């Protein structure tokens, strides 16, 4: 004998008629929205009566991100790691953090295209004490490195291109290395940024974010060694290298003070993204150089594994 008091729940996927299926789905969605709204109203009343409930909810309501759920890595540097502090006091970049002014040369592949030259000119406006030298066909990179060493340059930047557009950036620290090679993407010139500001000749403030491993510390210090460690705050300019999931986002802003209390950021440009491909000990040597780290596809066993 059938049970007349039993209720049957019909799922939209079980209904063959399309119009009826959409009607049932709409009713279910409306009922869920109504229940969620009522739940939020009830919670708001409870938290108004007891503010501690809201504080506890916000304290526990931390979204899961790839940064805070990253896999444990022994290479992550702790703030009070005395061994790392001592190493950095004696590494290749220590003298630049003690006041020595950097001297940088930047060049390109031979016969670089208009887009590549334009990008180089933008970098020249970003990095103080930098000189752009146009590269001829007869000059190999090893010759350029020796040229820079003989003239006391502290760093060499080489922009390579693909299809007449910048594609990679190689940073060589002189006189003894290391050398880092990056893939270059998402380039936007300053003039393409809506409401962009104008740069001044003041030394910018340098901001390095989330370079937390030993490899990340090395890359961060390579970038820092390009800039004088005496920012001229009256210029109100800031250069940021922000590492997120091993992608390094470059931005340049200026502080805009409004009515003495409010501070805004106005982007100057350019902006681009770097992805480390390899780090080599010593000077650039593709044939017999010792690689400290090199990117391989099989390294990415998990999206929560971060190298920088």
Automatic annotation (TrEMBL):
InterPro entries: Brix (IPR007109), IMP4/RPF1 (IPR044281). Residues 25-58 are annotated as: Disordered. GO terms for biological process: maturation of 5.8S rRNA; maturation of LSU-rRNA. GO terms for cellular component: nucleolus; preribosome, large subunit precursor. Signal peptide: none annotated. Pfam families: Brix. Residues 27-43 have a biased composition (Basic residues). Residues 44-58 have a biased composition (Basic and acidic residues). Gene3D superfamilies: Probable brix-domain ribosomal biogenesis protein. Residues 102-285 form the Brix domain. One of its GO terms (molecular function) is rRNA primary transcript binding. PANTHER family: RIBOSOME PRODUCTION FACTOR 1, U3 SMALL NUCLEOLAR RIBONUCLEOPROTEIN PROTEIN IMP4. This is Ribosome production factor 1. The lineage of its organism: Eukaryota, Fungi, Fungi incertae sedis, Zoopagomycota, Kickxellomycotina. The gene is RPF1.
């Amino acid at each position: 004998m059938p049970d007349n008091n039993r209720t049957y729940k019909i799922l939209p996927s079980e209904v063959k008629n399309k119009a009826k299926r959409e009607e049932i789905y709409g009713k279910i969605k409306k009922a869920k929205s109504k229940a969620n709204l009522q739940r939020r109203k009830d919670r708001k009343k409870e938290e108004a009566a007891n503010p501690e409930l809201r504080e506890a909810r916000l304290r526990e309501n931390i979204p899961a991100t790839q940064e805070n759920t990253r896999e444990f890595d022994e290479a992550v540097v702790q703030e009070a790691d005395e061994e790392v502090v001592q190493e950095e006091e004696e590494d290749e970049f220590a003298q630049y953090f003690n006041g020595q002014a950097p001297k940088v040369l930047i060049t390109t592949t031979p016969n670089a295209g208009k887009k590549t030259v334009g990008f180089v000119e933008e970098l020249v406006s970003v990095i103080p004490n930098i000189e752009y030298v146009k590269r001829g066909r007869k000059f190999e990179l090893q010759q350029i490195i020796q040229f820079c060493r003989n003239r006391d340059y502290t760093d060499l930047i080489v922009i390579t291109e693909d299809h007449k557009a910048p594609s990679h950036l190689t940073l060589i620290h002189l006189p003894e290395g290391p050398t880092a090679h990056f893939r270059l993407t998402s380039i936007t010139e300053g003039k393409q940024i809506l409401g962009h500001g104008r740069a001044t000749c003041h030394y910018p403030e340098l901001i390095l974010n989330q370079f937390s491993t030993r490899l990340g510390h090395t890359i961060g210090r390579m970038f820092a060694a390009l800039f004088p460690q005496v920012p001229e705050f009256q210029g109100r300019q800031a250069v940021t290298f922000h590492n997120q999931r091993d992608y390094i986002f470059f931005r340049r802003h200026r502080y805009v003070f409004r009515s003495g209390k409010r501070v805004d950021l106005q982007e100057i440009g350019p902006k681009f993204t770097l992805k480390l491909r390899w780090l080599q000990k010593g000077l650039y040597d593709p044939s017999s150089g010792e690689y400290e780290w090199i990117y391989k596809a099989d390294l990415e066993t998990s999206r929560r594994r971060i190298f920088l």
